[in-house]
Design goal:
Pfam families: DUF3632. With 335 residues, the chain is mainly α. The chain has helices at residues 18-31, 37-59, 67-71, 80-96, 103-117, 149-165, 171-189, 206-209, 221-251, 262-277, 283-302, 311-314, 321-334; strands at 121-127, 131-137, 255-256, 258-259. The protein has two domains: 6-140, no CATH class; 173-331, no CATH class. The strands form two sheets. A two-stranded antiparallel sheet has the order 1-2. Strands 3-4 form a two-stranded antiparallel sheet.
Length: 335
């Protein structure tokens, strides 16, 4: 496993506090195999508790704390939600600096799972600028959108990759997008759906919306390829790290990125085959896409038992879109 320097993760700043430095060092040690995910989760929990306790002491250090005191830094207000969002931002940003094949990606996913396994903890937070109330952390479920994690993944995605969507010539952003996709795909394959809507296979992705072969005759062919290429690579990454789950969703016709089906699987496969054979795309990226196509062929050959329980049932996808649509039609008839 290649060592990744801290600078490559872009999660350090000149004015970082000791707690900031402890968090970034923990993530850095984790992805390089110096500590395991459980130890990293416990350290992050301890940081949260330490920061909250210090903030509560600071807030209670004056008889009648005011908003002005908080704004000018005279005292600090306890806001564990803010620190939790800070952790989510650094987790996602770290993923952007790790190549898709690096085991550090798996370590990050395992860290999130370990955070899910922590006992829920109640910390104090300032509410309405005048009273302290308890709030709960480490209750990380799809129902509460993983306590801000889902929102922060979206914000990171929008903040870092709009240039990729617009086809700007920013190779560094394109690489970060593919790295980030690897993290999201790995999580999704483990049943963590926080980044599901950000998939390169979703309906908003250029890979899903565009037929790249048609653009070869266009005057802006190079621009079209530059815009499409990161999303084709992202789609390949989703197949490579979540392909078996995706195939099951297609075979069982679950509703994930629209109506999943064997036909949709075939469309994705054909689009990847087009990229594999198109000389306008970079050689390394065509090799990546070729690996995804090879895996799709193997997955198809293995097949699945659509009547048996699998990933979809384990993670709560229990009915096909056909059944859901039929149910909606019956409800309309009843009305």
């Amino acid at each position: 496993m290649a060592f990744i320097p801290l600078e490559a993760l872009k999660i350090t700043y000149p004015n970082d506090s000791e707690d900031d430095k402890n968090l970034t060092a923990t993530l850095h040690d984790l992805i390089n195999g110096k500590i395991d995910p459980r130890a990293a989760a416990q350290t992050i929990d301890q940081i949260m508790v330490k920061v909250n306790e210090a903030d509560v002491i600071s807030y209670n250090s004056v008889p009648n704390p005011t908003a002005e005191m908080i704004e000018n830094g005279t005292i600090r207000a306890p806001q564990p939600d803010g620190w939790l969002h800070y952790i989510w931002r650094y987790l996602g940003t770290t993923a952007m600096g790790i190549p898709p094949y690096h085991s550090g990606q798996d370590q990050l996913v395992s860290l999130f799972q370990e955070l899910q396994c922590l006992p829920t903890r109640k910390l104090l937070r300032l509410v309405d600028g005048e009273k302290l109330e308890e709030t709960e952390i480490w209750n990380l479920t799809p129902e509460n959108k993983y306590n801000g994690f889902q929102q922060w993944l979206w914000e990171l995605h929008e903040g870092h990759f709009l240039s990729v969507f617009y086809g700007e010539d920013k190779p560094e952003a394109a690489v970060a997008y593919v790295n980030f996709s690897s993290f999201l795909a790995r999580m999704w394959a483990k049943g963590i759906t926080a980044g599901e809507s950000l998939s390169s296979l979703s309906y908003s992705s250029p890979f899903e919306k565009q037929e790249i072969a048609w653009t070869a005759k266009y005057a802006d062919s190079a621009f079209q390829v530059r815009r499409y290429e990161p999303f084709a690579c992202g789609a390949a990454i989703w197949i490579l790290y979540a392909g078996h789950v995706i195939f099951e969703m297609c075979e069982k016709e679950r509703r994930v990125w629209g109506r999943m089906s064997r036909e949709k699987w075939g469309i994705w496969k054909r689009k990847l085959e087009v990229v594999r054979e198109d000389g306008r795309f970079g050689g390394d990226n065509r090799k990546l896409v070729a690996l995804a196509v090879e895996l799709m062929v193997r997955i198809e050959a293995e097949g699945i038992d659509v009547h048996a329980g699998g990933f979809s049932e384990m993670y709560g996808w229990t009915s096909s879109w056909r059944e859901e649509d039929d149910g909606e039609e019956e409800d309309e008839m009843d009305d």
